[in-house]
Amino acid sequence: MELQKTDTESNGGLSDEEYEPFRHRRVKKPNSTNGTIIHMLKGSLGTGILAMPSAFRNGGLVFGVIGTTLVGLIYAHCVYLLVSTSQKSCKRTRVPVLGFSETAQSVFRHGPAPTQRFANAAKAYIDYSLLIVSFFSVCVYLLFIATTLRDVINNELGIDWDTRIYILLTAVPLIFVTQVRDLRYLVPFSALANTLILVTFGITLYYIFREPIDLSNRELFPEITALPSFFGTVVYAVEGIGVVLPVENKMKHPQHFLACPGVVSIVLSFITVLYNVTGFFGYARYGPGTRASVTLNLPSEEKLAVSTQLLAALAILFTLGIYYYVPMDILWRKVKHYFPVERHNIAQIGIRFGILVAMTGLALGVPELEPFIGLVGSICSATLGLLTPIVLDTVFRWSTPGAFGVFRWRMVKNVILMAFGLFILVVGTYFSIKDIVEIYG
């Protein structure tokens, strides 16, 4: 992202306090507040919702609701910290708009003296973290499609093919999907994928509620060892931090983003309620047999259920082009100068294909969906969605007298939230890897 710079003369010599970034933004076709709400919903409301019953299986009915609500509140607060820090950094540096990595760079560059040397490293860290999150998500989606095809085709044809065969079969169309570089050709497929996800979700709810639900044999609270998997899955499902600043930067009225009620409070309240309902009743319906994606629990003997599973897989296939576009755009901007201009086309083809091969290899090595979702949530989502906004807020406030409030309560709050994020990162990663080792050890 290229920063829009505004010089001091054009600002009329305004002080940092008087400079208003929103007035200097020049956005072609800005999004309305309602349009921004829709974009935020698309960023957070994805296939993760289908994993919520699995999360409640690990967390129990009562703690599942409490834990999911807690994660929703913490994530909403972290979004608030990220956006408010970005807006204050714009004001301090007289720049109309900053992206995620540019915000990190600005915060460290103008922060306490010991942090200033890490400004470029902070920018690179965000960029590469977004790359890792996006590519790991490709692995999760690849596994989701392969697992769905395995269940449907093996059942319909009476065969017993391994998941790895379906991973390889799924990778074939992805060779072509991941080579699409023009966003114009991907947007219609993304819109179709969103429609298919909504249809899948609706039919899944029909199967969950079509018969009375008995709660008598369901766990209410988790075992201690299951907590990291619960939190890792919920954080993975809820987190969509990568779309937050790009969406806010294109608003017609960006002041509505953090308002009360505003975009953040409306979207994340809706998401939290929806995820709680799906997780609670999904686990209540299927109990200990709840699988990594609730669509895999639908009755395989019913054509509607089978078609729903295939629709979900198709939706993910259509979405993968968009998920591949974002990290490849970041990566290509970083490496294109290493190649002569006349070789840019062949270089892009090779890099895109090579990364797909690597992600397919990773999926082949760990062809189990549930521990992989927990691993991605613990490592990637906890780092970007929880820890990074807290660190940026802390560094930004460090040199400003009184910025942490009476008795430095904001510092205390940030330390507590950081401890929670580190818990998910360290403990969640440990148990996810332990589960993978136990499965394949």
TrEMBL record:
It is a multi-pass membrane protein. Residues 33-433 form the Amino acid transporter transmembrane domain. The chain crosses the membrane at residues 61-83, 125-149, 161-178, 185-209, 229-247, 259-284, 304-326, 346-366, 372-395, 415-433. Residues 1-30 are annotated as: Disordered. The keyword Transmembrane applies. InterPro entries: AA_transpt_TM (IPR013057). One of its GO terms (molecular function) is L-amino acid transmembrane transporter activity. Keywords: Membrane, Transmembrane, Transmembrane helix. One of its GO terms (cellular component) is vacuolar membrane. It is found in: Membrane. This is Amino acid transporter transmembrane domain-containing protein. It comes from Anopheles coluzzii (African malaria mosquito). The lineage of its organism: Eukaryota, Metazoa, Ecdysozoa, Arthropoda, Hexapoda.
